[in-house]
Design a protein that fits this description.
Pfam families: 2-ph_phosp (PF04029). Its cofactor is Mg(2+). The radius of gyration is 17 Å and the shape is globular. It is 34% helix and 22% strand. The chain has a single domain, classed as putative 2-phosphosulfolactate phosphatase (Alpha-Beta Complex). It has 247 residues and is of the alpha/beta class. A 5-stranded parallel β-sheet has the order 7-2-8-1-9, with helices on both faces. Strands 3-6-4-5 form a 4-stranded mixed β-sheet, sandwiched between helices. A two-stranded antiparallel sheet has the order 10-11. Helix 4 crosses helix 5 and helix 5 packs across helix 6.
């Protein structure tokens, strides 16, 4: 029986323990949601890097036009677009994107040793869970909450619970204590239409930096996107669609 673990913030990740595991990184407000919307709007591949220096270095190597997004502790970076999914427009031609952030992209970097690494949020968690369930390869499943700059993040924990809930509904999985609590938190938050997430620390931070609609926008898009992002060869791309459960 596959076991589901939840790591409540990126600082608790032990990279060597992810080898052989299936992992999903969650940063609901804001990085993983933005990555998912980038892929949905024809920006591919997406390069998630640790910080602005790495982003600028990679940008210089790009021969084609690309999108450069970033923030640090919630503040925008000079020369970067802010990673606000509300502002992303569809790209007529497939175009690469580079993104750096305080939490989500660092969590992705820490999780890259996993056997398979997915990018998840409330907007696509149902599809990520579906893909993980289809694998049935016996690997442990590690759900990584990015957290909020070395602190617990309510919305990421609930995003992990979304994955745990779908998986537990579809099959026999062993849930860790943290996974059980995350699942319960997700179901409770879903019943309240995720309203408490609008009072989370990260939602308040986005409001202070003049992005008041970002959190509400993501909540409204709960399970509306079918994109399944996967980390491959240092890049994030859309995984090819497989047959869905029950279809």
């Amino acid at each position: 029986m596959r076991k589901i673990h939840v790591i409540t913030q990126k600082e608790a990740v032990r990279e060597e323990r992810l080898v052989g595991c299936t992992a999903a990184v969650i940063d609901v407000f804001l990085a993983t949601s933005t990555i998912i919307f980038l892929l949905d709007r024809n920006y591919e591949p997406v390069h998630a890097v640790l910080g602005s220096e790495q982003a600028l270095e990679l940008s210089k190597l790009q021969e084609a036009e690309h999108l450069l997004l970033g923030e640090s502790k919630g503040e925008g970076l000079e020369g970067f677009d802010y990673p606000d999914p509300c502002a992303l427009e569809y790209s007529a031609e497939r175009q690469a994107a580079i993104i750096c952030s305080t939490n989500g992209t660092i969590a992705i970097e820490k999780a890259k040793e996993a056997k398979k690494l997915y990018i998840s949020s409330l907007v696509n968690g149902h599809r990520v869970a579906e893909r993980i369930h289809q694998e049935q390869d016996g690997s442990s499943i590690v759900l990584i909450c990015s957290g909020n700059d070395d602190r617990f993040s309510m919305e990421d924990f609930i995003g992990a619970g979304q994955l745990a809930d779908h998986l537990a509904n579809w099959g026999s999985y062993e849930l860790s204590d943290a996974a059980k609590l995350a699942r319960k938190a997700y179901r409770s938050s879903l019943a309240e239409r995720f309203n408490e997430l609008l009072d989370s620390e990260t939602a308040d931070l986005l409001k202070r930096f003049n992005f008041p609609e970002a959190a509400e926008f993501i909540i409204r898009q709960h399970e509306q996107l079918d994109v399944v992002p996967v980390y491959k060869d240092g890049m994030i791309v859309k995984e090819l669609e497989q047959v869905r459960n029950g279809e």
